[in-house]
Amino acid sequence: MSELHFPFLEAAVLVPLVGAAVIGWVRDSERAHRLAIVFSALTLLMAIGAWQDFAIIHAGETHPSVAHDRWDVLSQIIGDQVLVVDELTAPLLPMIALLYFLTILTTQKTKIRRFGFGLALTSEMLLLGAFASREPWLVVGLLSLGTIPPYFGLRHRGKPTRVYVVYMSLFVALMVLGWALVAADYDGATAPAWAFVPLMLAVFIRSGLVPFHTWMPDLFENASFGNALLLAAPIPGAYAAIRLIVPFAPDWVLECIAYVAVATAVYAAGMSLVQADLRRYFCYLFLSHSALVLVGLEIVTAVGLTGALCVWLSVGIAVAGLGLTLRAIEARFGRLSLSGYRGLYEHTPALALCFAIAGLASVGFPGTLGFVGTEMLLDGAVDTYPFVGAALLLAMCLTGISIVRAYFLLFTGSRHTSTVSLRVGWRERFAVIVLAGLLVGGGFYPQPGVASRHEAAERIRRDRAGLFNRSLEHYADQMPQDEQPTHFDPVARTVNVADRKVR
Amino acid sequence: MLTETLLAWIVVGAPTVLLCVLGAWSLTGRRLSERFMARAVQAAIVAGLLASSAILTIMLVSDSRHIVIEVGHWVVVPDYHFSLRFMFDRLSVPFVILSYVLCGTIGSFGSRYLHRETGFNRFFVLYAVFLLGMVATSLAGTIETLFAGWELVGLSSALLVAFYHERPAPVRNGLRVWSVYRVSDAALLMAALMLHRMTGEGNFDALMGTGSWPFGEATITGGQALVVGLLLVVAAAGKSALVPFSGWLPRAMEGPTPSSAVFYGSLSVHLGAFLLLRVSPVLALSPLLCGVIVALGLTTAVLSAITERVQTDIKSALSYASLTQVGIIVAEIGLLPPLLGPWACYIPLVHILGHACLRTLQFLRAPTLLQDYRLLENAIGARLPRSNALLQLLIPRPIQIWFYRFAMERCYLDAWLDDFVVDPVLRLFQSLDGLERRWTTFLAGRPSHPREHVQPTATIFEER
């Protein structure tokens, strides 16, 4: 395990924690907003530092190892490498920090009393901690704790919490139970197949896969848009799947996740077409996109998995662009429905442009960040199961229509009259330019991003193959000599048993 | 080869630079002057046109039929690469020159037609997207590049149909166009992925054999050609408004006249036929596929000819006249090469070039049609003759009335799509949405939705 030049990871986790503590003492909401901007910006810098430091340390290496902090205080206390960065999480950490920073930065003055900055920073700390950890119990714990801040957000707003509590309790219970069953085996390699069922259900719930998704539209309708966006956009369910399920689970578990995810992608895309409430529309759009990432996890070909990981990044940023645009619109016009034309283009052309670019990037339009990732995901899907590829295309076709429909309903079709200026301020313009720059820049020059995701995909495949081979060794002792398995090929997904190949 | 590479870079680079300049400026929220935009468009188009003409000259002088310019790998990782590859052959060069000539003409016309229009900047940004899409599609050396250009054309078309976006009708029609294009895009992408899977390559050279267009020989089997070919036919039908997607073409006339002329009169509407020409070696492998193409083309031509006769505005009439010709071109693609050999692909190509130029001229003259009629009638000293008098005598009155209604309803194609595809899908998801709401209300113990439930808006998908 290599060592970063600076404790970026600890800083990225501790800065928002300190920020949340400091903000807890501040009564003036404007001051709290300014402090939250500073702390979230510092967190973003630390996360970028970890990413770039990791890239510098492992430049030119074919299979870079995991890196941990220099002067790792936490490991000295706990006795193990708690916070680490690898190929998978290196760009995800800054993406999460960027989402929080932009959400906090673009919070309007009219909303700063209602948006809990302390809760947002606490939630950022928990999420970054979970993403910077490879220790399964810590991932389970932090993801469980991450469900608490939105609950307080709902209560603070006086909204119904029962649906959220029911689903999240189930999620936490299933995840803890599932991992306890899997961890009963020394490294998960020989855990019984049924032990993965609770974990799989937990991932279904947290990722909002059909039919376990209804808590998410409910949350989007009742929570503040910013909090709901931050809870969903980083797609922690996919992270839980990668850390807790993909390396250990038998094929049928992954196939099951993929089929449910495909169904979700199509179902949510169709639902987004008929939504009359803006927030529910956004939620279904997000569910359809995030399901694509989970579909890719089952396509264990390098190309399909690389595509899924690219889509994860592009969807994260694109959904943030869409969400922040809708949030900015809500801050000006209140809760909007999609039952008629709003004609906001003349007042907010920058938001219209951001919505269009982010929406198109989310469906993998050429020239945007999502294009190559989507192509690779579809390529992998068609290569493995052609009908899965066809279903994904149907989902993308429907979401494409749904995005342009929402664009037309919000920004065109009538002429909105207003006596005051509704143009975006410098903070929102900054967010628009940053997101548009990332989406278009990443689209024109996708090679570094794709290469990095390919490395991450290879590591996931290696982890899975390694565990599989260990489980084979475990069972080999109980088998006749001529039946002993010798090697697992993760590409063909076959096991060499003597001269035969077994799928 | 260095000269050709440099020229190819100019052909592709000119619209790319134009889009980057206009698009980046729009992102900052500042407005460029009309004069600057018009000159930037002119400069890009002249540069691209001169470079593509120079390549044509080089090809004619050196008797070269096929020049491939490898820009390089856009993305390369083990097991996957995305190449940027442009192909200059006897199909792509005429098409790209046609694109530059017509876009140049319309760009010049549009800068005057839209003078002081609020959306002047928006029009030319979208125009740059369209130009880049056309050039990329025409010159694409890989099916992925073709798809990228294809999508750019689709997006710019839909947004330009909704150009006058302060009214709901253009927006509804823009969404309709976009919806059909998305189906078309999905079919093309599926075909591309399947071809990739069958041959392991995305390059047209590898897909269509070693011979230069139109003499290549595809390396897949007849059965594979039928499956892929049918997907390509769906893609072409969506893009070229063939049956059953014909309904979007007259709706697209909501856009400004310059974009109607260049998109639906000349270039965009022929892209489906271009795609079929590009993959003609695949079509040649399956007689059944060729039969489907001929039937589709002829059906489109006949139905469009019937519908065109009852249109009461000139742009709709011209759009259906265009469609009639496009249907005939598609039928030629399916019929002539199998009968006469690959060289017969030149016949639909020439038909496309001639038709595009004529129709552009007609669209541009459309706003002054009455003036033109008056001039003609003054010149001959009588009313212009009516051409359908003979048909009225031959066809019995009840059948005439039936045909009239059939034509007025645009052959019921849109109604059929709405009744059997759009409405059932929307109704299904509306029911599921209601179920979900009831479930969360049950779970929460009270209605947990802050807003009163608003009926979903199926009507925005169609103009009723």
- In helices, the fraction of residues of chain A equals 55-70%
Overall pLDDT confidence of chain B = 88
Mean pLDDT of chain A: 86
- Principal-axes shape call of chain B: globular
| N-to-C SSE string of chain A, H for helix and E for strand | EHHEHEHHHHHHHHHHHHHHHHHEEE
> Roughly how many Å is the radius of gyration of chain B?
24 Å
Strand content of chain B: under 5%
Largest interface: A-B, 74 and 66 residues
What is the radius of gyration of chain A? 22 Å
DSSP strand (E) fraction of chain A? under 5%
Q: Based on Cα principal axes, name the global outline of chain A.
A: globular
Distance between the termini of chain A: 33 Å
Unreliable stretches of chain A (pLDDT < 50, length at least 5) are 487-503
Structural class of the secondary structure composition of chain B?
Answer: mainly alpha
User: Largest beta sheet of chain B: what is the strand line-up?
Assistant: 1-2
Which structural class fits the helix and strand makeup of chain A?
A: mainly alpha
The strand order across the widest sheet of chain A is 1-2-3
